[in-house]
Specification:
By secondary structure, the protein is of the alpha/beta class. It contains eleven helices and five strands. A five-stranded mixed β-sheet has the order 3-2-1-4-5, with helices on both faces.
Amino acid sequence: MITDESETAKTLRARELGVSRSTLYYKRKKPNKDWQLKCQIEEVLREHPSYGSPRIALSLRRNHKPIERVMKIFGIKAYRRRGRKWKKTKNMKVIYPNLLLTEYPMYENHIWATDFTYISFQGKTVYVATVLDLFTRKVVGLSVYTTHAVQLVLSALLNALQNNPRPEIFHSDNGSEYNSEIFTEALKTVGALISRSAPGCPWENGYQESFYDKFKIDLGDPARFQTLGELVYEIYQTIYRYNHTRIHTALKMPPHQFAILAAREYNSVNRVGV
């Protein structure tokens, strides 16, 4: 009888969320081996930024298939990003370490990562900054500006903090916007640990790099919009669809749905007095 009631409760919960019962009990496993291999790949790329998976595999004396799989999972690629000039940085002072080398996102609001990209539109440049929760893969913060001053990244951070508890770790690259006093002080004020990619190692923020590749595909050709307002509206709509309806390959469901399931699982495991 207890089993029947339990099974009924499971069915009702799945129906309420609009998912199958098997999806309801999807649990994200901590891929220790994948995370270790990710760190090894990043070590190789620090010395050889242009290496693809075949040469990384040779360097690590590993089969290339797991190398390719892990690079895909964590959005790691040899740095050939279009439209954004990059050169290996030397002798840049490292103030904040990369905490992602030892920390794996284990729950919501554990680790956030941020970056910004740009879109060319009618002879102008539109900048989009996002904050990504690395556990749920959900975009929790967003801002759109026509300049890439500190206000761009600060607005994305404040947007994220307005609707969510502060993260334990906040990761970014070493761009001047993120190194500004006003930005670092904002993070210290809310009590978030600051994590940074090593200078000249953009793949260490691979989650965001991978996200922007997909975001621009989903956004489509900006030339189809008549006004800046139309473009900005579609940017927000694209982010909404990414969070709520677009199936994330690693999660097997949209990030928002995964966040709901993860929260319910956490509350179920940590219920008091049951």
